[in-house]
Amino acid sequence: TAVIEAVQTSWPVAVMHLVEYLAVLAAVGIVIYTLVKVSWQSEVAQGFWLGIPMIGRTLSTAYAYRWITALKLEFSAGIPLSEAVADAWRATGYVARERLAQEGQTGLWEGVELSKLVRRWKRLPRDWIDFIETGEISGKLETAFANLETEAGRAWSIAQKRMSEWLPKIIYFGIILIVAAKVFLMAYGLLVQPINDVTKALRDAGQ
């Protein structure tokens, strides 16, 4: 009877603790999101996030797609290549976009070929170098840019699909593990601890 009474009086407290824990978990999630958003303004911090396999791959693919799309549109519209490359970098989400834009514009002004600049820019796909170099040799840069835009769009669609499939699963799995651990600890305190307390009380009374 003592055990039953202990359990009956403990479960509302346990439920309140669970609600409080979920509220804290939500608050922590908001704080983490804010920190990530703020850290995105740092080139070093952005490099860290881009290094995470699935997230980094998706973001890099998106930025490359933005770059080649902006470049192709402006170059096709007759804008000088140096300006188009600078604007292409500004269209990406990289923190260092202004530095890279200036580097590209200055390099092209000085007569450096775009393929050589792309070789330096590790953020862009490595297989783009050959496409651009072929376009430079053949005089068909616009065609090369159009082909790269198509390829980049396809890669972005694939990366987006993978992210949408796996990221929610990973987040839900992490939340389930955290909640399960909390529920286990609460169940232990709700069921086992009162029994231990009653056993101890009976032992003390017997003495």
Keywords:
207 residues, 8 helices, 86% helix, disordered N terminus, mainly alpha
What does this molecule look like?
The chain is mostly helical and 207 residues long. It is 86% helix and 0% strand. The two termini are 21 Å apart.
Largest sheet: none
- Strand % is under 5%
Look at the structure and give the mean pLDDT: 79
Number of helices: 8
N- and C-termini, Cα separation: 21 Å
Structural class: mainly alpha
Low-pLDDT stretches: 2-8
- Tell me how many strands there are: 0
Our Rg estimate from Cα atoms comes to: 29 Å
Shape: rod-shaped
Helix content: over 70%
H-E string: HHHHHHHH
Could you provide a short overview of the structure?
The chain is mainly alpha-helical and 207 residues long.
